[in-house]
Specification:
The chain is α/β, with parallel strands linked by helices and about 325 residues long. It is built from seven helices and eight strands, in the order αααβββββαβαββαα. Helix 5 links the parallel strand 6 and strand 7. It is extended and about 100 Å long. Keywords: Leucine-rich repeat, Repeat.
């Protein structure tokens, strides 16, 4: 589940382990009780205490921070870690109480879990009450229940999963969502008719439906036309993109669109395709793909195996081969 992957991510960050967290290396700084050695409270309660000498076996904040930043340190973060992870580690050194227990859930505005084999978006995600960006690309998610998504979400990226149905996602989606990424999934259309309308996504600005199995251009446009804030649309890689009038029909049907398939829509293009949306008879519902097979390797030649002597009573064995293409 997403929750399990999230907790595993926190474990790898080591927020409660040296040099982060509270331990023998810094405990006097965060000890709220009176210290018998100093006769006063620790740094967490009295900033003036920072000027006193550190107890033996304790490290200064500067020394602990250097262990995180020095690339030769065994506690240094990987170069590809996010700024959010770096900030968390720094907080775990300077103010570790802020990243303990349920407090840490309030810190996350972005959560990126990519290629971790996640299959379920569970209700544990609701603990992240400040989450605005959720990236779950390259997992094994087939269904998303909108009730398990934080209402604060603005970006939801689900590229390269196995999503085939949007009905559960459209039941009660996050109202402020601005980007929905569903590229490289298994969507085709009929089972979730009317799910991509303003009734569910009133603030959607960017939509990625690339490399799915959409075939009904007219039906899809009838839904997308209600998305008044939609400016970026990606549909390349779908069968409907093979229709000769595909781009022109979309450009004229969605006048507020700024970018289609990563290509900016300019005034000249709009003028050239003006009026095409009112001529649906020009939009063909099928496309033809011609495939030529030049050579097949590794298959035995049937003619060489069927050379029998004249009058032979041996059984005749036939071999046949079929080449299949799935679209």
């Amino acid at each position: 589940s997403v929750s399990a992957a999230f907790l595993e991510h926190l474990r790898h960050l080591g927020l409660q382990d040296f040099p982060c967290g509270i331990g023998s290396w810094n405990k006097s700084r965060f000890n709220v009780r009176t210290s018998p050695r100093r006769g006063r409270t620790g740094w967490g309660e009295d900033p003036a205490g920072q000027e006193e000498a550190l107890p033996l076996a304790e490290e200064s904040p500067e020394a602990l921070m250097e262990l995180l930043s020095d690339r030769h340190s065994p506690w240094a973060l990987r170069p590809d870690c996010s700024l959010q992870d770096q900030h968390l580690r720094e907080m775990a050194v300077l103010t570790p109480k802020l990243v303990r227990g349920s407090n840490i859930f309030q810190f996350f505005k972005t959560l990126r879990i990519v290629g971790k084999g996640v299959e379920e978006v569970d209700e544990g995600l609701l603990q992240l009450q400040q989450l605005e960006e959720l990236i779950l690309s390259a997992n094994q998610i087939s269904k998303i229940t909108s009730a398990n998504l934080p209402r604060t979400l603005k970006v939801l990226e689900l590229c390269c999963n196995v999503v085939a149905d949007l009905q559960d996602l459209c039941t009660q989606p996050p109202p402020e969502l601005q980007h929905l990424g569903l590229g490289y999934n298994r969507l085709c259309g009929p089972s979730w008719d009317k799910c991509l309308t303003a009734d569910f996504w009133p603030n959607l600005v960017s939509l990625d439906l690339s490399f799915n199995s959409f075939t009904d251009l007219m039906g899809l446009v009838s839904q997308l036309s209600s998305l008044q804030k939609l400016r970026i649309l990606v549909l390349q890689g779908n069968p409907l993109a093979l229709i000769p009038t595909y781009r022109g029909f979309l450009v004229d049907s969605l006048p507020k669109l700024s970018v289609l398939d990563d290509i900016h829509i300019g005034p000249d293009e709009r003028h050239r395709f003006h009026g095409l949306a009112r001529q649906p008879e020009l939009v063909k519902s099928e496309a033809r793909v011609v495939v030529s097979v030049g050579e097949i390797k590794g298959a035995p030649d049937p003619s060489a195996l069927q050379q029998l002597e004249v009058g032979s009573k041996a059984p005749v064995i036939t071999y046949s081969y079929c080449v299949m293409y799935e679209f």
